[in-house]
Write a structure and sequence with these properties.
Pfam families: MarR_2. It comes from Microbacterium kribbense. This protein has 159 residues and is mainly alpha-helical. The chain has a domain of 108 residues: Arc Repressor Mutant, subunit A (Orthogonal Bundle), CATH 1.10.10.10. The protein has 7 helices and 3 strands. Strands 1-3-2 form a 3-stranded antiparallel sheet. α4 crosses α5. The longest helix is centred in the first third of the chain and has 22 residues. The mean pLDDT is 91.
Length: 159
Amino acid sequence: MTEEQRPAAEASELEALFPVSYAIYAMARTHRAIAAAQLSRLGLFPNQEIMLIQLAAAPDGLSQKVLVDALKVSHPTVAKTVARLEKTGLVRRRASDEDKRISVVSLTAAGRRLHDDVIAVWRGLNEQTVAGLSAQETAAFVATAQKIRGALETAAPPL
């Protein structure tokens, strides 16, 4: 049987072979789908809300380089997200006072107003995510997830 004819591995096979990686993948996929549905009601795509939250914490704005580092994504991803948010009137770009080559991004009044709705979505999603867990299980999950993330970030090449 050639590679093109071979069926894709079934989820149960992936889960059996790679239980930790599959659990992370399946949970992240489900979490992202729920977040996407809720964020779409606000006119946002997943990950745009993370940028809005970062910008809300910086009233004077952030450079796109700082956003790249904070969000751990590539510069083209930040540039594309900023352009989309700018087009919808949620952020604005201006040249830095210190260096005109640097673009500083900040929230508009509309972006600041949307921030509270974004936080409400994340609060609800967090509550939904841990609904079946005790406080102890939640703390253990967070500690384990942080440990795994640390190991992955140590092993991962920089963006």
